[in-house]
Amino acid sequence: MSQPTSNCPNCGAPVQFRWSSAVQTACPFCKSIIVRSDLDLQKVGEVADLPPDPSPIQLLTEGVYKGDKFQVTGRLVYEYENGGWNEWHIVFSKGASAWLSDAQLQYAISFLVNPKEPIPAQAEISRGKHLQFGGTEFEVSTITVAMYNGFEGELPFPYYGKSDMLFADLRTPGKSFGTIDYSEEPPLLFLGEWVEYEELQLKNVRQFEGWA
Amino acid sequence: MASPLVAPPVAKTKALSCPNCGGPVELRGFGHALTVVCQQCLSVLDVSTPEVKILQQIQEKQRITPKIPLGTRGKFAGVAWDVIGFQRRTIHEDDETFSWDEYLLFNPYKGFRYVTEYNGHWNFVTPLESQPTRFAIAGRPAVAFEGRRFKHFDGVEAITTFVLGEFPWRVKGGENAICDDFIDPPTVLSSETTQHEVAWSRGEYTPGADIWKAFALPGNPPPAQGVYLNQPAPAKGGSMWGTFGMFLLGLIVLAILFATASRQSVVLDKRFRFSTADAEPSIVTPVFNLEGHTAALELTVDANMSNNWAYFNFALINDDTGTAFDFGREVSYYSGSDSDGTWSEGGTKETVYIPSVPPGHYYLRIEPEMDAATGPYRVQNKRTNAMDYHVVLKHDVPNYSFFWIVAGLLMIPPLFHGIRSGGFETKRWMDSDYPPVTTRGGD
Amino acid sequence: MRFPGYLTYGMLLLTGLTWAEYRGWSLSRVNQVKDVPKTVRDNPGAYRSHYGFYPRYVGGK
């Protein structure tokens, strides 16, 4: 992984993108959100302090999924009526990008997919609706209105300045699961599966007072 | 200088001051908590933002002390869990109130679990991410999950009547949810439907003693009353009829063995004529030899009765030892026809098994008796009764009636076992939405 | 062994059955009479039956 070094367009401090395909990061000194196109850096906003995070996963946590090693490089923080959840951005050793979501310590790994079947528009989606993607049948289990609280680390695409957005959770009788992210137009589909904490063989996780 | 990929410091438990009474409120959930109840004054606090807000006030008289104290750490299957929250849920049914307790367990890596308790019955509950498939069994709702079928047991509206501790979601006294249970003992799949979503969880029945051991609690767990919806049936091993089938097979094999091993040789086969006018009613047969080992003899007497009866006195006499087997049999046969058709009573043939006859030389003494007064003949102007009869004596025969008796005796334990386990299942389903017997009168 | 009690019970029954069959037991009630004289073969009428008391016994000799 090449690590190009540049300077923060706001305060001039050196900024490094650990991951070569990272597009967004935050300046550690002035907290500006920096988005880059090729080697051109642009300040697009400021990142707020994130709320205290209860997740055992942290930046630089390493794990294994289906035999492939990955590292956590970034995080998106969401908040909704019944709490919050994290979408950790993970990068596999061969460069593939995926998301490890942690919602109340229920973990899932999903990949951005481009399905053959059309993704229903926001107006068409409702709880209980059955959808089919790539041969698997999903049922819309929840529709969540969430608030974007910020990000941390490095992201593969620009993601800032968002307010209320809609997510549709897709569930099956098995381990498969999916999410439709309506914060973009056209909406984004992520498909993946539920994973148990032990399956991921996580290393370099957060330490908790009183817990081994 | 690298971009801010700096690991956060070790997460610590927090404590805050209750805005109502100022008392300490401990947060063991490392930032997961959205709602926490002050143990001192029972104020329900919103801790989702740094400004702690009072949501609700629970009255002191409503206070319930959880059976597992908050803050207790327990171990299940090698994994440690802290009890951080407690809820009592109540349902109203036909003027009666039922409540069960839920304990929220937390592990900062593995997430959340629950331990539920009702009438001394405990369950270890895991939230599910997958959704079971709904279908129906014999018209009743059911769900399928991971290759198992779960039958619908009940659907209730549950109201939260007490909360204590902390929760990773917003919780308030008075909240309600529709709860449905689907059972495949010892497992239960429960769905909880609120305004916004359906959440599924799986519960495994756990004896109170195991809960007490997991949390190292003093004393004894509360005794379990009645039969709980996913309580495993005590009758171990399921149906006894499989073992019965094995015995039946053994019986058949034995029957075949004895049938083939027994000689079943005819030692006497003679026809006689008897009349009440005979000077001497008794006769003796020639001597015959019974060889081999002590065995049973089958004696068949077949008489041409027609609306008549005869009584036979038999004696099987050992010519060498002078020992005799002495017995008697009646043969009667009546028939006729009336408005309902033809009828018959009795039979013309009688069979006796003479038991344990030692080998040796034997002869048979036969003395028949008949009622001369009802006889159809006249001999020298005196009413006479007469018959022809055929006697067959077979040596070394198997006694098949014993096999039937043993088969019947073998059926008794599985029948009782079936009734007893049936009783357990009846008790289980009496508390469901589908009671097998309705005890209340109609409304 | 799912039902040890039942297995024992069944094995006892089958063993008893095997013994009864081998020894030629019977459910019929049969009296054993001793010391029947040899003369009965020539004079069967002299034998006195010891079997029960049949209610319809009409009369002897």
Task: Tell me about this structure.
The complex is a heterotrimer of chains A (212), B (443) and C (61). Chain A has 212 residues and is an all-beta fold. Chain A has strands spanning 5-7, 14-16, 24-26, 32-37, 40-46, 62-65, 68-80, 83-92, 97-103, 106-113, 130-133, 136-153, 164-171, 176-181, 188-195. In chain A, the strands form three sheets. Chain A has an eight-stranded antiparallel β-barrel. A three-stranded antiparallel sheet of chain A has the order 3-4-5, with no helix packed on it. A two-stranded antiparallel sheet of chain A has the order 1-2. Chain A is globular. Chain B has 443 residues and is mostly beta strands. Among the domains of chain B are: 71-214; 263-335 and 344-397, Jelly Rolls (Sandwich), CATH 2.60.120.380. In chain B, 13% of the residues lie in helices and 49% in strands. Chain B contains three helices and 28 strands. In chain B, the strands form five sheets. Chain B has an eight-stranded antiparallel barrel. In chain B, strands 18, 19, 21, 22, 23 and 25 form a six-stranded antiparallel sheet that branches. In chain B, strands 17-28-20-24 form a four-stranded antiparallel sheet, with no helix packed on it. In chain B, helix 2 packs antiparallel against helix 3 (400-430). By secondary structure, chain C is mostly helical. Chain C has a domain at 4-40. Chain C starts with a helix and ends in a 28-residue tail after the last strand. The chains are: A mainly beta (212), B mainly beta (443), C mainly alpha (61). Chain A binds chain B through residues 13-18, 25-28, 51-54, 56, 58-60, 73, 81-83, 104-106, 108, 127, 139, 141-143, 152-154, 171-175, 177, 194, 197, 204-211, and chain B through 1-8, 10-13, 29-32, 34, 48, 80, 107-112, 127, 129-133, 144-145, 168-170, 196-198.
Characteristics:
heterotrimer, A: 212 residues, mainly beta, 2 domains, eight-stranded antiparallel barrel, C: 61 residues, mainly alpha, 1 helix, 33% helix, disordered C terminus
